[in-house]
Design brief:
By secondary structure, the chain is mainly alpha-helical. The protein has a domain at 49-108. The protein is 55% helix and 0% strand. The protein has helices at residues 7-14, 51-75, 80-105. It is rod-shaped, with a radius of gyration of 32 Å.
């Protein structure tokens, strides 16, 4: 038995469609039969903050809270009135930081 090559089959193999060649340009691997890309998970339609942005704000808040608490508690002396005033000021600073973090991460 000998194998016979048909000339029509050989011609179709040599003339590949242009999307399989390097001259066609960039092909998006995510373009499927649906015809559109899926959105990335960190892009939100609601306009809310991403997870990375909320994490960055939380880290900056903690970093700012440490020196502010040191300043407030460092200025309070042995007098109980200044200690109470310093604790109230520290509470207001913590409350402000909490409100900013909650407002930033609020989802609509």
């Amino acid at each position: 038995m000998s194998q016979r090559m048909d000339f029509d089959d050989g011609r179709s193999e040599r003339q590949a469609p242009p999307f399989n060649s390097y001259q066609a340009g960039y092909q998006d691997p995510f373009m499927g039969s649906y015809g559109q890309k899926l959105s990335t998970p960190d892009v939100q339609a609601g306009g809310g903050a991403s997870v990375g942005q909320r994490l960055a704000l939380a880290i900056v808040s903690v970093v700012m809270l440490v020196p502010l608490s040191g300043i407030v508690l460092g200025t309070t002396h042995d007098d109980p009135i200044t200690l109470v005033g310093g604790l109230i000021a520290l509470g207001l600073i913590c409350l402000t930081i909490m409100v900013v973090n909650i407002a930033f991460s609020w989802r609509r």
